[in-house]
Amino acid sequence: MGWAQDFDLQWSEKKTYENKEDGYFTGFLGSNEKYVYTIYNNLTTTKRNAKKKRVDLVAQNKETMEDVHRIKLRGDKDDPGRKVALDGKAYHKTIILEDVVYVFWTLTEKNVTEIYAEVFDADLNQLIPLTEVYSITYPEVKKRRYYRRSPIVILSGKEWNNDVLIGTEVANGQGESVDFEYKVFDSQLEELVSAELELPIVQIGKKSAGLTSSYEYGVDGNLYIQSYITLSREERQNLDDGEQSAYSKLSIVDIASGELTDTDIRFDGKNIFNFGFLVEEDGVRLFGFYNDLEIDPKGTSTNGIFYATIDKETNELKETIFSAFDEATLDELFANDEEDKKKTRALFKKKRKANEEIDKVSLDSRYVIESVKLKEDKSIVLFCSKMYNYTVTVCTSNGNGGTTCREVPYCDKSNVTVFNLDPDGELNWSKNVDRFKTYGGHYIYDLRVLTRDDKAYVIYGSSYAVDAEEKKRKNRKKKAEVRDHFEYAVFDLETGDADKREFVVNTPEVEKADRKYVSPLAISIVDDEFYVNSQRIKFKPGLTAAGCVASLVCWPVLYFVALSPVFKKGVGHIGKLEIIE
Length: 581
Description:
By secondary structure, the chain is mainly beta. Among the domains are: 232-365, no CATH class; 368-504. It has eight helices and 34 strands. The strands form eight sheets. Strands 1-31-30-29-28 form a five-stranded mixed β-sheet. β20 (270-280) and β21 (283-292) form a beta hairpin. The longest helix is centred in the middle third of the chain and has 11 residues, at 349-359. The relative contact order is 0.11.
């Protein structure tokens, strides 16, 4: 453990953010050989309003992070024709490829959603103007909220010859199967393929809101669909005790023909948790945690890692390997972190003793797989953390004696735990790095992982000093420490050895106005590189003072000042965090 500078952090010049100028940095979109692309929106009370008022697309130098090309997709007062063309349309998505940039918009009126696309070159010169490419018609129902989220799929990638797939799920009613319709377009927006297929899933409720499955355009040119199948009431009656009433199904679609083959991620005597897959040219690798019903008949414990492959020629599942956790492995894994070993909460002695035996060969069930890397020798590395979501009730009282309560979500993140499975799927080594961080919100995934040669660099959130042996108040990081450094771990992918380190973001001589803050949540991975955003939003001094004076007369003015973006201004930097090899 200690100080190290494994990274070179290159910041842009200071940027000023304001609605009436260039808007606020929103995120990284992608990169090609020439640029990394970012998007800017207005600061508003809702994201939807931000995308309606302003959308700026910027191509930036990948080394200096300076703006090279900038276009106003929406909000250019000097282009009234574009304002008319985009009337009623909502920004949907941008796809960055090597030679072209796709921008997609949607227009929804009554029960019809139209998808529009425009195409730019890498320098953001428009190649093809706004063109309608797809239309979705929903069932005519009285309550539009039944279809409140357009089930749109838009996929592409640098391996697919600049082609783009646009599709939608079609709900046929309660108890009926769900269909998937799609079209493939080239960079001239010419239609190449049109197909429809039946998904292996049935609509359970009356409502149809959003996608039932997740979609991935594989590097092998196939479409991969992961569906979550819930058993019917009749099917659940035939389940064994502890057996899951839902499971994942992976479907592989030949895009040209629409032919679908699927695989149940379901095994006798096992429950599968946290299922994932990797698509490679030589086939598909499946992985996840599993519960062994012979060890834990209740079906809740995590007893090991499963691994399987799908043959690229037949699309059939090959032999599945179940690597069970044993007591010696888990004792070694948590030798320096006893508090994170799985422990029963049973109150009665008999039940507690039975659970303790199960816990000896079980991982905490709150573990999630956040990142997966494939090594050159075809072994895989799983980067995991423990996630605990909960809510806290917060109540406030007003001057009239009334009380208002609300639920505030939180997410506790513990540990960086890494498992290496050899090319045959057997557990090779495992390693745990202790850490703890509480975030606002639920389901926060905060591991940022890149690999170089035989090392993995994992950036994560941590509230305690890098060398703290116990999670006590005295060991918590001070505010300045959180701001001026970020914590990470370096794993040796051959041996599993790990080292906790800190990177210095702000040296002592940096002026207060120039200090940056690097949170793992503000780090994006774009084409196997770390990019980071540091941004501060403050109230404008003059307008805020006027608002405060007015609030002495009328308190709602203070509320308006707090929410209105008119009273706010931001400063920030974006940067590239490059691994020093």
